[in-house]
Amino acid sequence: MGIMESTPMRDTNLSPGWHHQDILAAVRKTGTSLRALSLQHGFGASTLQASLYKLHPRAHAIIARSIGQRCHALWPHWYDEADRPRHLTPYQRIALSRGKTRRAA
């Protein structure tokens, strides 16, 4: 068995999704910012900004809703067509199954 046969291939059928600057511009067009959305939903000030670069299902759902898109349209490499995360860490799986969320007091 050669290296190519044993190495999983990345799904080449996935579209690249939106560039992070396009997402930022779309959020700004709605008259708000990632920082404001983050604080409004009880996250730290930079959480939504950081979620542009790593998997964060709740933060992504907030961003997608704010600009009228689906998570899969923005991040097809992270979400399937039903907007379910493709890959979750064990902590993320537990948090999502418990409905864990932070809310502003």
Walk me through what this model shows:
The chain is an all-alpha fold and 105 residues long. It contains seven helices and no strands. Residues 1-12 have low confidence and may be disordered.
**Order of SSEs, N→C?**
HHHHHHH
Relative strand content: under 5%
| Sheet with the most strands, sense and barrel status | none
Q: What integer value in Å does the Rg equal?
A: 16 Å
Sum up the structure in keywords.
mainly alpha; 105 residues; single chain; disordered N terminus
Secondary structure blueprint with pairings:
Layout: H1 3-6, H2 20-29, H3 34-40, H4 47-50, H5 57-66, H6 71-74, H7 90-98
Give me a quick take on this structure.
The chain is 46% helix and 0% strand.
